[in-house]
Design goal:
The structure holds 2 protein chains of 2 kinds. Chain A is mainly beta. Chain A contains no helices and 11 strands. Chain A has strands at 2-7, 10-14, 19-27, 32-38, 44-50, 56-58, 64-68, 73-78, 87-94, 102-104, 108-113. In chain A, the strands form 2 sheets. In chain A, strands 2, 4, 5, 9, 10 and 11 form a 6-stranded mixed beta sheet that branches. In chain A, strands 1-3-8-7-6 form a 5-stranded antiparallel beta sheet, with no helix packed on it. Chain A is globular. In chain B, the strands form 2 sheets. In chain B, strands 2, 4, 5, 6, 9, 10 and 11 form a 7-stranded mixed beta sheet that branches. Chain B has a 4-stranded antiparallel beta sheet with strand order 1-3-8-7, with no helix packed on it. By secondary structure, chain B is an all-beta fold. In chain B, a hairpin with a 2-residue loop joins strand 5 (44-50) and strand 6. Chain B has strands at residues 4-7, 10-13, 18-25, 31-37, 44-50, 53-57, 64-70, 73-79, 87-94, 103-104, 108-112. The chains are: A mainly beta, B mainly beta. Chains A and B meet through strand 4, strand 5 and strand 10 of A and strand 9 of B.
């Protein structure tokens, strides 16, 4: 079984500041990890994913995340926040190869202050 | 436009009504999913269809009845719902059940009165 914990239901950053959204997971098998973004009144859009290989993955809109097995973490970062980054972000985990079911965290709402 | 279209976008229904949600994709995907998104809760997977066959039912009450007539269309039939069923219902698709490139629709905001 898998689970996801997102630390902080709401994060506010100033425009141009570093964005850091935290995600910790638990999984009994090597996990596949994902970040999705949801803009108001829209569905979820994949930001980035880690399956195998390089532990630092780059996604759309300048976001990246690093898989740290020892810390069971997959934090999402962006060096410089933009107003258009304001949205709700979800971390998700699946049980690795052959297990397609995603378990989502509760989400973190990112606000960007001008 | 995400490639997955859900209709209607908003639905208000009484507890004795029967209604259906529709999801359509023309991405060539063969797996389709229904998720429920409630305030302050994680997304809940409800049903999974792979090549038109239901492969997952996550203990969803029988007042929710899915239908997948072909790989491009997915329905969620609703009857005798409860106010706590009010939520955003999201449809998603992927190439197949072992793929991770989920494409989500914009959802149907359901309010049960």
């Amino acid at each position: 079984a898998q689970s996801v914990t997102q630390l902080g239901s709401h994060v506010s950053v100033s425009e141009g500041a570093l964005v850091l959204l935290r995600c910790n997971y638990s999984s009994s098998v090597p996990p596949y990890l994902f970040w999705y973004v949801q803009y108001p009144n829209q569905g979820l859009q994949l930001l980035l994913k880690y399956t195998t290989g390089a532990t630092l993955v780059k996604g759309i809109n300048g976001f990246e995340a690093e898989f740290k097995k020892s810390e069971t973490s997959f934090h999402l970062t962006k060096p410089s926040a933009h107003m258009s980054d304001a949205a709700e972000d979800f971390c998700a985990v699946s049980g690795g190869a052959g297990s397609y079911q995603l378990t989502f965290g509760k989400g973190t709402k990112l606000s960007v202050i001008p | 436009e995400t490639g997955v279209t859900q209709t209607p976008r908003h639905l208000v229904m009484g507890m004795t009504n029967k209604k259906s949600l529709k999801c359509e994709q023309h991405l060539g995907h063969n797996a389709m999913y229904w998720y429920k998104q409630s305030a302050k809760k994680p997304l809940e997977l409800m049903f999974v269809y792979n090549f038109k066959e239901q492969t997952e039912n996550n203990s969803v009450p029988s007042r929710f009845s899915p239908e997948c007539p072909n790989s491009s269309h997915l329905f969620l039939h609703l009857h005798t719902l409860q106010p706590e069923d009010s939520a955003l219902y999201l449809c998603a698709s992927s190439l197949d059940r072992h793929s991770y490139g989920y494409t989500f629709g914009s959802g149907t905001r359901l309010t049960v009165v």
